[in-house]
Amino acid sequence: MRYQISGKQIDIGEALQSHCKSEIDEVISKYPGRPTDALVVFSKDAHEYACEAVVHLSTGLSVSAKGKAVEIYGAFDAANAKMEKQLRRYKRRLKNHHQDRAQPVELSGASSYILAASGEDEDNEPDTLTPMIVAEMETSVPSLTVGEAVMQMELAGVPVLVFRNEKQANGVNVVYRREDGNIGWIDPNTAP
Question: What is the 8-class DSSP label of residue 70?
Fold first, then answer.
């Protein structure tokens, strides 16, 4: 497994790196879904340290967690505990999907754009209706079942997930968290 452990404007020592590697290995070894790589980023916000950790599994799922504490080891331990809780919560579902899936999740390339906020008042009309692109990035769109997409969205802690539906040819779908707490699913191929 590849590790990338870094800090934003803070130095990360060898002891902290080895602590992170051993703790992540211990947590991941209890659950299915061979890990491929782990990304851990530390930062400092006023008097607290923050840790963001993401572990990518070969099944296509990503587990991510954030933790904060006064000490840097405590921040990592908080994030690691959240990852373990997520994996424990979805252990049975991960096992079931892992057994059904003979091949790893297929990823398709796509472009992702960040658009500038309009910043216009309601009374003023913008000069043009074409939005200004602030940044352009490469992203991946996984081929998943709807159940796997919901699980991926919950594990990653994101409000929206775009995916290719494995049950349909070239079917791009979206799952999202609704304000009422339920999960919404947009499937354009079944529109009347």
Answer: S
Helix spans in the chain (H): 14-29, 72-89, 91-100, 146-156
Query: What are the residues whose beta carbons fall under 8 Å from the beta carbon of 96, sequence distance 6 or more?
Result: none
Count H helices and E strands in the chain, helices first.
4, 9
Instruction: Tell me, yes or no, if the two domains 2-98 and 105-190 fold the same way.
Output: no
Q: How many CA atoms lie within 13 A of 127 on its CB side?
A: 1
Task: For domain 105-190, give the CATH number.
Answer: 3.30.505.50
Neighbours of 143 (CB within 10 A): 17
Domain 2-98 has CATH 3.30.160.100: yes
Give the tens place of pLDDT for each residue, 138-172: 877 888 888 888 888 887 778 898 888 877 766 78
Spatial separation of the C-alpha atoms in residues 70 and 75, rounded to whole Å: 7
